[in-house]
Amino acid sequence: QSNQQGREISFTGLKLDDQVTVTLDIEYANGCSASVQKTLNLNEIVPQADFTATVSSCNADGTVELTLDNTSSDLDNVTSVQWTVTISGNVQNYTGNQVNLSGIASDAVIDVTLDVQFNNNCSASVSRTINVSDIIPQAIINAEVSACNDDGTVNITFSNGYSGDVNPMTTSWNVTIGSDVFTSDQPTFTTENINSGQSITASLDITFENGCTASDMQEINIDDLLPTAGFSAEISQCNNDGSYELTITDTSGNTDMVSWTISVNGTAQDYTGSPVIITVDQDDVVNVVQNVQFDNGCSDVNEQTININDLIPAADFTAEVAQCN
Fold first, then answer.
1. What are the CB-based long-range contacts (under 8 Å, 24+) for 138-142?
2. CA end-to-end span of the chain, whole Å?
3. What is the DSSP secondary structure assignment for residue 70, as one 8-state letter?
4. Could you tell me which residues come within 8 angstroms of residue 309 by beta carbon, excluding any fewer than 6 positions away?
5. What does each C-alpha distance from 170 to 105, 185, 284 come to in angstroms?
6. d(CA 198, CA 156)
7. pLDDT tier at 133, thresholds 50, 70, 90
8. What is the DSSP letter of 15?
9. CA 217, 223, 224, 226 torsion: positive or negative?
């Protein structure tokens, strides 16, 4: 414990895993006073080392250009930067806030260590293994049912699932559904009024702004894209009279409306919304019919039978010979 005065105070000999609680009391000239207390975790306020690795371009021979950028905290107060880069056992050292690596194999594995010195005599280090194939921009076909129509057909939206920082320059889609072929040069496009029960052959070719290209092809069953109803059931409470509270919760996701027909030993009751809580006995058999309307206009029905005995928490233990004397 230390009591200090003035606009600025200092402590010495602290460790990084120390937690410091500071209370500041202020008396103003107008007779007012104020107080504030904060707990400081030193690990959170000391400068940290960090970096990013990006593919800056793809070469005609299949190799890539790789850029390492120092993104450490408090960059304005950095006094020294040292990189250690290991590729296939070959160790190279670099300085500066940016390192450009040329002719790197697209399947290379690179070990990078960044050591940073700050002007307050603090230092920080970070090491990371980079799989180059993981940071090359990719084409990843995403397909989802964006709407179910009144006539039983569906609309399907296609998009690239790549979420990296490199923007596409050109996009080419070729989608075959039955005897119909759809093409587009847009990052996202939708096919409308498609009959379910069919299969899709989709291909995607992309050229990115860094010169890299990527392709993907997928076979997709439309029925696998349709949203499905689902729920969980658990005993949420054991009552003093020996009965139980059964909680049934919708797990479908993106729902517009959920309705239920729940039968306990043959006696049915209708419910809406989620969760639904009912009182049951140990030997009851509960039949649940779940009707879900999704926000894309699709619907689904899910029916399951629940034996309450299967959900009741049970005590158990194991026994083993720990030692023979």
1. 138/162, 138/164, 138/214, 138/216, 139/204, 139/205, 139/206, 139/214, 139/215, 139/216, 140/216, 141/202, 141/204, 141/216, 141/217, 141/218
2. 54
3. E
4. 282, 283
5. 24, 7, 61
6. 12
7. very high
8. -
9. positive
Q: Quote the CA–CA distance of 65 and 100 in Å, as a whole number.
A: 7
Which tokens belong to 60? 């005609």
How far is Cα 135 from Cα 129, in angstroms, rounded to an integer? 12
* Distance set, CA 141 to CA 47, 174, 201 (Å): 40, 11, 11
Q: What is the pLDDT of residue 152?
A: 92
Strands ordered across the beta sheet of 276-280: 231-238, 244-250, 276-280
The pLDDT tens digits for 231-266 are: 999 999 999 999 999 999 999 999 999 999 999 999
- pLDDT digit string, tens, across residues 263-311: 999 999 999 999 999 999 999 999 999 999 999 999 999 999 999 999 9
CA distance 254 to 145: 12
What is this structure's pTM? Answer: 0.72
51 within 8 A of 126, measured Cβ to Cβ: yes
**Residues 6 or more apart from 89 whose CB is under 8 A from it?**
none
The predicted-structure confidence for 171-214, as pLDDT tens digits, reads as follows: 999 999 999 999 999 999 999 999 999 999 999 999 999 999 99
- The H or E element containing residue 189 is strand 188-194
Tell me how far apart the alpha carbons of residues 155 and 149 are, in angstroms, rounded to a whole number. Answer: 8
Measured CA to CA in angstroms, residue 219 lies from 13, 143, 199, 200, 205 at distances of: 63, 11, 7, 6, 15
Distance CA 136, CA 165 (A): 10
Amino acid at 37: Q
Pairwise CA distance, residues 31 & 106, whole Å = 69
Which has more pLDDT, 289 or 43?
289
| Stretch 65-91: mean pLDDT | 94
DSSP string, 34-60: EEEEEEEEHHHHS----EEEEEEEE-T
Query: Coil, helix or strand for 14?
Result: coil
